[in-house]
Design goal:
Elements: E1 7-13, E2 17-22
Antiparallel strand pairs: 1-2
Length: about 40
């Protein structure tokens, strides 16, 4: 079974902004500490 993230949202960013970022099926998210080589071009 595939679990897909359909969007990412932040409510109350900086105390006032609501942000929503929709994702399509081809997105990849890399999570890790700084300096681990996550940068992609």
């Amino acid at each position: 079974m595939k679990n897909n993230i359909k969007s990412f949202s932040i409510k109350g960013l900086l105390g006032e902004l609501d942000i929503e970022i929709p994702f399509d099926e081809n997105i990849k998210i890399f999570i890790g500490n700084n300096g681990l080589g996550k940068l992609m071009y």
